[in-house]
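From the methods appendix. Each design record in this collection lists the tokenized structure first, followed by the designed amino acid sequence. Records were kept in a plain field format so they could be parsed without special tools. The example shown here is representative of the layout used throughout.

RECORD:
FOLD TOKENS (332 positions):
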């Protein structure tokens, strides 16, 4: 599997990365042994980039990924985590289902993009991961905290990078506008853009991706299935965490029909699409079981014929100016 480095650093990431939200018990519980087997299957398939966050299962994802990676040689993998939400003790009982995770609510999230909060978040994550260094640290969803994120959190990440406690720094969001500002106005190495560069949504193409190429900043893409619709475009399916409109559902089904006519699958096309742009270094996919990992890798390595991309343009499913993978080198 192809490996690239982030920005001007020597931090490597595989073209396909393991997204850790699902093994943080996203929506439904995952047993410890199931999570371990999913991670082990990803490793055996060649994945060496593992992404997590305190937010994912109130630290459960970090603990599970850390426990697994400690069994692997230091330097043989890359792990990213995120800052912006501190976990504080909570004794009110209940669970975390309101935030989407099937875990007991033994802690609560507190937004904190202060310099002190960022440093404490990294130290707490190192404790949960059981590691002595974070390869990549992202500012996590600073949408409503821009002043503090740019004024305090980002400079602290720079200091942590300078100290060697963090290898590469960036921001991860479900939008492209503020990520573009990070690319243009700071010295980030990488940005994680979720749901804004897919077969159905190319908003990142207008400003973020060109700015990233110009500045030498790597782009990692998440949400290539747009919260499920591009994995299974069924009636009642979700697009960007809401019920898909009839128009969007129709487009997804047209992509699916086109993929099948060309002997491939919609999921394979969705996974391949971001690599049409030279600014994209890696794609993150969340998986919760060995079977899901195996299927994702199979789809990721499947061939998507050049004729599929050409017909997608001819049918105006993709704009003519959107770069497609047949014009770039293979991602595997």
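DESIGN:
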């Amino acid at each position: 599997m192809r490996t690239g480095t982030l920005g001007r650093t020597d931090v490597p990431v595989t073209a396909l990365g393991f997204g850790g939200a699902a093994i943080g018990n996203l929506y439904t519980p995952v047993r410890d042994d199931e999570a371990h087997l999913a991670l082990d299957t990803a490793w055996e398939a060649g994945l060496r980039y593992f992404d997590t966050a305190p937010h994912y299962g109130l630290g459960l994802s970090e603990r599970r990924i850390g426990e697994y990676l400690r069994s692997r040689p230091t330097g043989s993998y890359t792990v990213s985590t995120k800052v912006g939400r501190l976990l504080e003790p909570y004794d009110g009982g209940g669970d975390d289902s309101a935030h989407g995770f099937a875990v007991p609510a033994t802690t609560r999230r507190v937004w904190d993009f202060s310099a002190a909060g960022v440093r404490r978040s990294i130290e707490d994550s190192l404790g949960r991961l059981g590691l002595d260094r974070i390869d990549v640290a992202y500012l996590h969803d600073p949408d409503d905290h821009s002043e503090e994120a740019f004024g305090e959190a980002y400079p602290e990440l720079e200091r942590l990078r300078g100290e060697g406690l963090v290898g590469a720094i960036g921001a991860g969001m479900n939008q492209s506008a503020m990520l573009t500002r990070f690319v243009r106005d700071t010295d980030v190495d990488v940005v994680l853009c979720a749901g804004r560069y897919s077969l159905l949504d190319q908003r990142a193409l207008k400003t973020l991706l060109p700015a990233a190429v110009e500045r030498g900043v790597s782009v990692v893409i998440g949400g290539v299935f747009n919260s499920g619709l591009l994995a299974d475009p069924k009636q009642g399916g979700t697009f960007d965490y809401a019920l898909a409109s009839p128009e969007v559902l129709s487009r997804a089904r047209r992509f699916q029909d086109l993929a099948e006519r060309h002997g491939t699958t919609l999921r394979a096309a969705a996974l391949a699409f971001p690599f049409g742009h030279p600014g994209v270094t890696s794609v993150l996919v969340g998986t919760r079981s060995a079977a899901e990992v195996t299927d994702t890798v199979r789809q990721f390595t499947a061939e998507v014929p050049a004729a599929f991309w050409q017909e997608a343009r001819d049918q105006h499913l993709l704009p003519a100016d959107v770069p497609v993978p047949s014009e770039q080198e293979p991602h595997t």
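APPENDIX NOTE: Residues 146-163 form the longest helix (18 residues).
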